[in-house]
Amino acid sequence: MATILLTGATGYIASHTWLALQAAGFEVVGVDDFSNSSPVVLERLHELGGRPPVFERADVCDAAAMEGVFQRHRIDATVHFAAFKAVGESTAKPLEYYANNLGGLLNVCRTMRRHGCTRFVFSSSATVYGDPESLPIREDARLTATNPYGQTKLVGEQILRDLGAADPAWQTACLRYFNPVGAHESGRIGEDPRGTPNNLMPYVTQVAVGRREFLQVFGDDYPTPDGTGVRDYIHVCDLADGHVAALRRLLDAPGSFTVNLGTGRGHSVLEVVTAFARASGRPVPYRIVPRRPGDVAACWADPSQAQSLLGWQARHGLERMCTDSWRWQQNNPRGFEA
Ligand code: WQD
To answer: pTM for the complete prediction?
Structure first.
């Protein structure tokens, strides 16, 4: 069976993808520098996967380190997760975001080329759509970046398109994630942001488990049913399955593609809060505060391209996303910290 390299392998989405790939019969080699994840994830992957994970500690920007990885392992395809991903932070630290996110991508692609490996899955984001002109969002919608993080995803996709145009041997898949939430049903791996969570669900789970006093709801004056922001939340295990489907297509059929990985359904902040309180049995106190700069009112996917091209669609609804998020947080009140 094919061997898949995962960069950013001990991160939230990558660790779930690791398990899904193993269950689908792929061999997996993980690479991470633990700059934004915990080594404890490897112990959990061993426990859940039933065998020691094949792992290399390396910075994807380190050419010598990545060359060593490709010398020690015969890689058939790469899924590139490794990137900084905080929108607000990217505005404050553009140099670090361009250097890491684009420098890492370029180094991984150059190393792959030296070793004749030309199958590449890119972790992209709905952020490339900016403030959508119409909903649901199709892959041919206008693309625009409203922050350096989003720009690194836009430019990353363009690099891969140019690479494929220059050398048809390259087959690439750009997967545009909407809002990943939830956790593996075991409750042994999940989202563990460092410091104050930027994203809604981890903040909600930290309020419910008592680590935070209340949730700030960023605005209730949007043109949405209840005035709060609407997003397409997708279970991280559905997202992981989307990567398996994308890799099977890349390895079995010619051609590159870009698809949305979302459910096609939007939920408001207050709907998420209500669903989570019901699923967890815990109150989630909140206060309405002014809008967060850069937020859009509503964003949800048209996932039909992924369904027709990959035979993939999301299976889990909001209730399951909340119950799985809660199980992870309740069992790991301080995340992966000992
Ligand atoms: C969701 C909704 C907030 C926190 C970002 C990135 C995107 C991707 C996913 C990387 C919005 C509201 C949030 C809080 C709140 N990341 N909210 N209080 O902004 O849709 O997308 O994360 O790929 O690129 O842009 O996700 O979870 O931050 O916000 O009210 O404490 O929850 O206003 O309506 P977002 P989010």
So the answer is: 0.98
